[in-house]
Design goal:
about 65% helix, mainly alpha, single chain
Length: about 170
């Protein structure tokens, strides 16, 4: 089994990436806005609108009238995250296809719970008008009180729910 990266080194790297994002793009990090841009652009393409802003199926604030989702900073960021994640896995020789799960959990149970968790996170991000990465990383870096409350709540929830998750992996 290959070792994972040192979390302190990776944390410093994320901080430097966040600082670079502010310096280069003038924006923080996040993910849900990129997905919203891709979906809004896709909806405009399906209904035949020439620009996303002209589409009644999409809100103009999602894309600022961009003709291509590749003109959005957050979409490019997401592409970089996927590329960087693959390169990191490849360098650590962790690119095999597998479903990690506990002995008492079937593959289908693991997949269903994973998809359900992803859907809940997506709905939560939509309701909160932002994702956990934007809230914790960007909001935390800006010292926003709500973001620090969110971070503390996430850690407390994880601590309380970890015995349940631990049982599923045995």
């Amino acid at each position: 089994m290959k070792r994972y990266s040192d979390p302190y080194v990776v944390g410093m790297g994320i901080g430097l990436v966040l600082l670079a994002a502010y310096g280069i793009a003038g924006r923080g990090l996040g993910a849900s806005g990129g997905f919203a841009t891709v979906v809004a652009t896709g909806m405009a393409a399906v209904e035949g609108s020439e620009t996303v802003a002209a589409s009644p199926a999409t809100a103009a604030y999602l894309t600022n009238g961009l003709a291509s989702p590749l003109h959005d900073w957050l979409v490019l960021e997401l592409l970089g995250v996927v590329t960087g994640g693959f390169v990191s896995a490849w360098l650590a020789r962790r690119t095999m296809v597998s479903i990690e799960r506990g002995a008492g959990v079937s593959r289908w149970q693991r997949l269903i719970v994973s998809v359900a968790g992803g859907v809940l996170m997506g709905l939560g991000a939509k309701l909160a008008r932002g994702c956990t990465s934007g809230q914790a990383l960007t909001g935390g870096a800006l010292l926003a009180t709500g973001s620090w409350t969110f971070i503390a709540t996430c850690f407390a929830s994880g601590y309380v729910l970890s015995p349940l998750a631990r049982r599923l992996w045995r």
